[in-house]
C-alpha cells in the first residue's frame, strides 16, 4: 500500500525536513511555528497509514501556522493604516490650531508682516525727532513715502489756530499782514462716553376747565429700561460682532465710572432679542424664499443644566447670495439654533424651500433630496480640503495631483465671477467639463491601485460618490463651485466660540442666532452693524408690523454721519 505513493520513506522524510528548514528560514517564520525537526519520528519505521496520518497532521499544523501569519500580517497592515490616519488627524488639528482652513499660506504671510512691522518700528525709532520733522515737511517728488489718503470727510472737524508769537516783523519791526496759511490734519480718538438724556414732559392745564395735556412718553426699546438704542446696539455689537462677553463689558464700563452688572446687560440682551423676533421672521422668509441656498452648521458648546458640564448644540446657517452670478437681489444670512445635530432640524428649517441646496455631505440633508423638491449641489472646497490634508501630511502624489486639477477649476471660476448664469454655464461646459471628465477617469484608475483602507482611497471614494452633485455647477450657472458663502458666515461664530467657551443655555443659543443673523446680513449689505442695530432698536417699537420688511438691512441706507454718530 505504501508503494502506491511511489516515494520511499526516506525520500519523504528528507522532503519534509527540507520543507521545514526552508519554512523556518523564510520571511513567514515566526514564533508561532509549532512543527520542528525534533517533533518528527523516524519515518523509516512508520507504515503507510502512520505516515499518511503524520503528513495530514503536519499539513494541518502548517496551514494553521500560515493562517496565523496571514492574520498577523493583516494586523500589521491595519496598524499601518491606523498610523497613517493618526498622522493625518494630527496634521488637521495642527492646521486648525495654528492656521486657517482656507489652505492659504497664512503663517508665512504673518511672519513677513511681523518682520515688516519690526523694520518699520526700528526705522521710526532710529530717526531723531529733528530729522522726522524735516522728513514731514519735505514735499518734493523725490520722497519715497506714498501720499497719504485724505481723512474721511464725514468726521467732525475741530480747528486749532496757532498764531505766531511775533506781533511785528522781527527784522525791521514793520506791520505784519496775512500771506496765507498751512493746514495739516491729525486724526485723534475720543474715548467712548456715556451721557444721560433727560426726557422732560411738561404738563399743561387749561385755564378755563380742568383739562390737562401732556406729550405721550416716548417709547423705549425695552419697556421701563434704562438703556437707549445706542447703548443697546453697542452692547449687542460688542458681544456678537466683537466677541466681548458681557462680564468684560461690565468691567470696561466700570472703568468709566458706570456700574452695569453683567446681569443687567444680560437682561438687555434678552429684551432686545424678544423685540427683534418679527424682524428675524421676515429675514427667514426672505432667505428661504430664493431658489438657490447655501447651508452649513457648526458646533456650539452649551452649558447643560444641573451638572455644570457642557453639551454640544448646533448653529445652522443659511445664506442667500447670488451676487457672483450677477444677481441684484440683496444678500442675507439666517441662523438657527438646535440642541443637537439630528436631521429633523434642517428638514424643519427648509420645509418651505424649493430649489438647489449647496452644502456638504451631511446625511441629515438626504431626506430633503429624496423628496425631490430640493436638488443637491456639492462643495468642491470640501473635496479639495481632503486631498490638501493628505498632501500636507504624506506628500501623496495622488493628492498633490488632485489639488492641482481642482486649482485649474478654480482659476476658471475666478475669471467668470460676476457674469450672468448663462455665460457662466457656457464657459463651464466649454472649459471645466473636459477637465472634470478627465479627472473622473484619473480618479477611477487611481482607486484601483490604492489600498482600500488608505486615507487616499477614502478621499477618492468620497469624491466619486458625490460626483453627480459635484458636476451640477456645470449644468446651472447660478450654482457656485463651493459652499464658501456659508463657511464665511460661520467665521464669526468660530471666533466668538473661542472667547465665550460655551453658551449659557439653549435659549442663549437661540439669542445668538438672532443677533448673528442681523449682524451678518448687515455686513453683507455694507452696513456698520452697530449703526444698523441702533437705527432698528430706535424705530422698531413704533414701526407697523405689517411693514416690518422696511427694517431689513438692504432697505435701510445709513449715511456716513449716522454711522459715525455712535
Strand order of the largest sheet: 5-4-3-6-7
Measure the end-to-end span: 110 Å
Structural class label: alpha/beta
Radius of gyration: 37 Å
Helix and strand sequence: HHHHEEHHHEEEHEHEHHHHHHHHHH
> Main β-sheet, in a few words?
5 strands, mixed
Give start-end ranges of low-pLDDT stretches. Answer: 1-9, 26-38, 97-117, 134-146
* Tally of strands: 7
Shape: elongated
Percent of residues in beta strands?
A: 5-15%
Summed over residues and divided by their number, the pLDDT gives a mean of 80
Describe the structure.
This protein is α/β, with parallel strands linked by helices and 566 residues long. It is 52% helix and 8% strand. The longest helix is centred in the N-terminal third of the chain and has 51 residues, at 48-98. It is elongated.
Secondary structure topology:
Layout: H1 9-25, H2 48-98, H3 106-126, H4 129-137, E1 203-205, E2 212-214, H5 229-240, H6 246-255, H7 262-288, E3 292-303, E4 310-320, E5 332-338, H8 344-349, E6 355-358, H9 366-371, E7 374-377, H10 380-394, H11 397-416, H12 421-447, H13 455-465, H14 467-475, H15 484-489, H16 491-500, H17 506-524, H18 529-539, H19 560-564
Parallel strand pairs: 3-6, 6-7
Antiparallel strand pairs: 1-2, 3-4, 4-5
Give descriptors for this structure.
disordered N terminus, alpha/beta, two-stranded antiparallel ribbon, 566 residues, 19 helices
Amino acid at each position: 500500500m505504501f508503494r502506491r505513493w511511489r516515494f520511499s520513506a526516506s525520500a519523504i522524510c528528507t522532503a519534509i525536513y527540507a520543507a521545514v528548514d526552508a519554512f523556518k528560514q523564510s520571511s513567514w517564520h515566526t514564533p508561532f511555528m509549532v512543527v520542528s525537526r525534533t517533533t518528527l519520528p523516524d519515518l523509516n519505521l512508520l507504515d503507510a497509514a502512520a505516515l499518511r496520518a503524520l503528513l495530514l497532521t503536519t499539513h494541518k499544523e502548517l496551514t494553521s501556522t500560515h493562517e496565523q501569519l496571514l492574520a498577523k500580517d493583516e494586523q500589521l497592515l491595519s496598524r499601518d493604516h491606523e498610523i497613517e490616519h493618526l498622522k493625518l488627524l494630527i496634521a488637521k488639528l495642527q492646521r486648525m490650531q495654528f492656521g486657517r482652513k482656507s489652505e492659504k499660506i497664512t503663517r508665512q504671510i504673518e511672519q513677513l508682516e511681523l518682520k515688516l512691522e519690526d523694520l518699520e518700528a526700528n526705522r521710526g525709532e532710529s530717526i531723531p525727532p529733528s530729522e522726522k520733522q524735516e522728513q514731514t515737511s519735505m514735499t518734493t517728488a523725490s520722497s519715497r513715502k506714498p501720499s497719504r489718503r485724505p481723512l474721511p470727510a464725514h468726521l467732525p472737524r475741530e480747528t486749532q489756530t496757532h498764531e505766531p508769537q511775533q506781533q511785528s516783523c522781527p527784522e525791521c519791526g514793520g506791520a505784519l499782514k496775512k500771506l496765507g496759511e498751512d493746514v495739516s490734519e491729525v486724526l485723534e480718538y475720543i474715548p467712548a462716553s456715556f451721557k444721560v438724556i433727560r426726557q422732560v414732559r411738561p404738563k399743561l392745564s387749561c385755564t378755563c376747565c380742568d383739562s390737562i395735556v401732556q406729550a405721550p412718553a416716548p417709547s423705549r426699546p425695552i419697556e421701563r429700561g434704562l438703556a437707549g438704542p445706542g447703548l443697546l446696539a453697542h452692547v449687542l455689537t460688542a458681544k456678537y460682532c466683537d466677541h466681548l462677553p458681557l462680564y468684560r463689558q461690565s468691567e470696561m464700563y466700570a472703568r468709566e465710572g458706570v456700574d452695569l452688572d453683567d446681569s443687567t446687560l444680560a437682561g438687555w440682551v434678552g429684551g432686545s432679542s424678544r423685540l427683534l423676533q418679527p424682524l428675524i421672521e421676515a429675514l427667514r422668509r426672505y432667505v428661504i424664499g430664493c431658489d438657490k441656498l447655501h447651508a452649513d452648521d457648526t458646533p456650539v458648546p452649551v452649558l447643560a443644566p444641573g451638572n455644570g458640564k457642557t453639551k454640544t448644540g448646533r448653529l445652522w446657517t443659511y445664506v442667500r447670495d447670488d451676487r457672483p452670478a450677477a444677481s441684484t437681489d440683496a444678500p442675507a444670512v439666517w441662523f438657527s439654533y438646535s440642541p443637537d445635530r439630528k436631521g429633523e432640524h434642517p428638514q424643519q428649517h427648509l420645509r418651505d424651500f424649493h430649489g438647489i441646496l449647496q452644502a456638504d455631505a451631511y446625511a441629515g440633508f438626504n431626506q430633503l433630496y429624496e423628496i425631490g423638491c430640493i436638488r443637491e449641489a456639492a462643495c468642491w472646497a470640501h473635496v479639495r480640503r481632503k486631498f490638501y490634508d493628505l498632501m500636507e501630511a504624506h506628500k501623496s502624489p495622488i493628492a498633490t495631483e488632485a489639488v492641482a486639477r481642482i486649482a485649474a477649476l478654480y482659476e476658471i471660476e475666478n475669471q467668470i465671477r460676476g457674469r450672468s448664469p448663462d455665460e457662466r454655464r457656457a464657459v463651464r461646459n466649454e472649459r471645466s467639463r473636459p477637465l472634470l471628465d478627465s479627472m473622473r477617469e484619473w480618479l477611477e484608475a487611481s482607486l484601483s491601485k490604492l489600498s482600500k483602507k488608505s486615507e487616499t482611497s477614502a478621499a477618492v471614494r468620497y469624491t466619486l460618490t458625490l460626483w453627480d452633485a459635484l458636476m451640477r455647477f456645470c449644468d446651472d450657472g447660478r450654482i457656485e463651485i463651493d459652499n464658501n458663502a456659508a463657511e464665511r458666515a460661520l467665521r464669526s461664530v468660530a471666533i466668538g466660540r473661542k472667547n465665550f467657551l460655551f453658551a449659557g443655555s439653549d435659549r442663549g443659543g437661540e439669542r445668538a442666532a438672532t443677533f448673528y443673523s442681523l449682524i451678518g446680513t448687515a455686513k453683507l449689505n455694507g452696513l456698520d452693524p452697530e449703526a444698523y442695530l441702533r437705527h432698528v432698536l430706535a424705530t422698531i417699537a413704533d414701526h407697523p408690523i405689517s411693514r416690518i420688511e422696511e427694517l431689513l438691512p438692504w432697505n435701510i441706507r445709513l449715511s456716513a454721519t449716522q454711522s459715525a454718530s455712535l
